[in-house]
Design a protein that fits this description.
With about 550 residues, the protein is α+β, with helices and mostly antiparallel strands. Helices cover about 65% and strands about 5% of the residues. The protein has helices at about 25-30, 35-100, 105-125, 130-155, 165-170, 170-250, 265-315, 320-335, 345-370, 385-395, 395-405, 420-435, 495-505, 530-540, and strands at about 380-385, 405-410, 415, 445-450, 455-465, 510, 520-525. The strands form two sheets. The chain has a five-stranded mixed beta sheet with strand order 2-4-5-7-6. It has a two-stranded antiparallel ribbon with strand order 1-3. Helix 12 packs antiparallel against helix 13 (about 495-505). The longest helix is centred in the middle third of the chain and has 81 residues, at about 170-250. It is flat and about 125 Å long.
């Protein structure tokens, strides 16, 4: 198919430029490559730049040294602040432990002791050549050690479980000692701040000298650049602008505009490559349009197929069931009216006909429910699974009571989904657990639920019934696949297939746990909030 090329109504792009001749550029540009042009320009300026680079390098080395000093002073100031924070954490932890006697208050104290050694060591490493800083740090550590020896360590050694009497007795003494620690910390920070300011002043002076030298270098480079620019303009820049203009037209959608090779030899090769890519792009766009048309046709066919499926559902729910009801009704009427004229075999045949009609009607209803999952009633809402489980258990109460089964469940969450479909899911799983109970032991059925870090709710319906062999773990979820005869266990073989379709429609998975014995565990997942969100919601409800 043809590609429709957008045409501009106004401006210079209305008519693309005609391809230029390869000889239209400068004569030298046709012979020299871009590398040769650059080599000539760089060689002519290398000597000057080398001299300027040596001078600038010396000045930069000095600036780098001063910059390292400034960074070291900044790092030391941060370490001093962190050291003060570590000491404050120790005082806070000891004070809390002294008042409450709870071991948890000692965690900040122990962390603070570790951080104190860490940041004190860092300060000595970074500022070891500054005697005034080392002196103030020694004073701070001495006062901190005095406070720890007289107050912190005795209080921390007291047994937990009750307020520490020693903390109350030495409260004033501890406050005085720690105020001395704070004063020493403040003095240390002031000393480091002075070192920072001195370093910054020296760096500023060096930066000013560097700027002056670089300004002179810039003037020289500008003069050199002006000389080199004329040659580069003729041999490189102008052909590159022409190539850029051609590429821009193609990028704006004028795909039939050719990219004309001009300029140096290597630039000609690049232009030829871009033009080849343009041709391939036109072909790809043509194929893309064809694929899009095919997708549109497939979407139309899919909508038609869905419409036919809806019509089939209507027929299945009305037109097909009505004859079945008539067959069953008239067979039963025939049996009642002519019972005295029919022998036992005829009555048995009529029973077979009625049972077949009823089973066909049940099968149609199950197929109809299976086909509607994901197509009808797709609006989701908040579904309280606790209430849904209660309603489902009430609906199965007769079967549960006859089987002598015991239903149990974990606290169930509220999820987002289709309440009707989730109800069908629970009813099928629970009714299967009741149906396939073991005659050797009382039936116990439990629905468990837990939230995981993957953002899903993990559910499991567990029973102690006859179980499912590992070799049938996948087969049971295939529609119409039965592991037992209809005479042993009634049903159509659609229940678990319907459960799988409902779970997958809600974005989850379902599987049989082959390791569970005795009985069966069917585990499935549904999207839900993370455990953090659940905890936050629980706290909000408590408030």
């Amino acid at each position: 198919m043809d590609i429709q090329i957008p045409q501009q109504s106004t401006g210079p792009r209305e008519a693309p430029r005609q391809p230029r001749s390869a000889e239209s550029g400068p004569h030298a540009a046709g012979r020299w490559t871009t590398r040769r042009w650059l080599t000539v320009g760089v060689a002519s300026s290398f000597a000057v730049l080398l001299l300027l680079g040596v001078a600038g390098g010396l000045l930069l080395a000095r600036s780098a040294t001063l910059t390292d000093r400034v960074l070291s002073a900044d790092s030391a100031f941060v370490a001093a602040v962190r050291l003060e924070t570590a000491l404050t954490d120790q005082e806070t932890g000891i004070r809390g432990y002294g008042l409450a006697g709870q071991p948890g208050f000692l965690d900040p104290y122990r962390t603070g002791v570790s951080d104190q050694h860490t940041f004190a060591t860092r300060l000595r490493t970074v500022m070891g050549d500054r005697a005034e800083v080392v002196r103030d740090l020694d004073v701070l550590e001495q006062r901190a050690a005095l406070w720890q020896r007289r107050i912190a360590e005795p209080v921390a050694a007291a047994p937990p479980g009750a307020p520490v009497a020693l903390a109350a007795e030495r409260a004033d003494e501890g406050k005085s000692d720690f105020d001395a620690v704070r004063d020493a910390s403040g003095l240390l920070q002031q000393t480091i701040q002075r070192v920072r300011e001195d370093s910054r002043a020296q760096l500023h002076s060096a930066t000013t000298e560097r700027d002056i030298l670089f300004g002179a270098i810039g003037v020289l480079i500008l003069a050199l650049t002006t000389a080199v620019f004329a040659g580069l303009r003729r041999g490189v820049t102008r052909p590159l602008e022409r190539l850029s203009g051609d590429v821009r037209l193609v990028a704006d959608g004028i795909f039939d505009h050719p990219v004309t090779p001009t300029g140096p030899a290597d630039m000609r090769q690049m232009a030829a490559g871009v033009d080849s890519m343009r041709v391939r792009l036109v072909r790809e766009l043509a194929r893309t349009d064809e694929n899009r048309l095919q997708l549109d046709e497939q979407a139309t066919e899919l909508r038609r197929s869905n419409a036919e499926l809806e019509q089939f559902a209507y027929v299945a729910s009305h037109d097909l069931q009505e004859p079945l009801r008539k067959v069953a009704s008239f067979c039963q009427l025939l049996q009642r009216r002519y019972a005295d004229q029919l022998d036992d075999r005829a009555g048995q045949y009529i029973g077979f006909a009625v049972d077949g009609a009823n089973r066909m009607q049940t099968l149609i209803n199950d197929l109809l429910a299976f086909s509607r999952v994901g197509r009808l009633n797709t609006e989701t809402s908040e579904v309280d699974l606790e209430q849904l489980f209660t309603r489902t258990a009430d609906a199965l109460s007769v079967a549960v009571e006859e089987a002598g089964a015991e239903l149990d469940h974990d606290p169930l969450p509220t999820v987002t989904g289709d309440a009707t479909q989730l109800g069908m899911l629970l009813q099928n799983l629970l009714s299967n657990a009741v149906k396939f109970r073991s005659p050797e032991r009382p039936s116990r059925i439990r629905l468990s639920a837990r939230a995981d870090d993957d953002g899903l709710w993990h559910f499991a319906v567990t029973d102690n019934g006859i179980g499912i062999g590992p070799e049938f773990a996948e087969q049971v979820f295939v529609i119409f696949q039965r592991l037992h005869t209809r005479e042993t266990y009634p049903g159509n073989g659609i229940g678990l297939a319907l459960c799988k379709k409902i779970v997958e429609f809600h974005g989850g998975t379902i599987a049989v746990d082959p390791a569970h014995t005795p009985g069966t565990r069917i585990a499935f997942t549904l999207p839900g909030p993370s455990p953090a969100a659940v905890a936050a919601a629980a706290q909000e409800n408590q408030r």
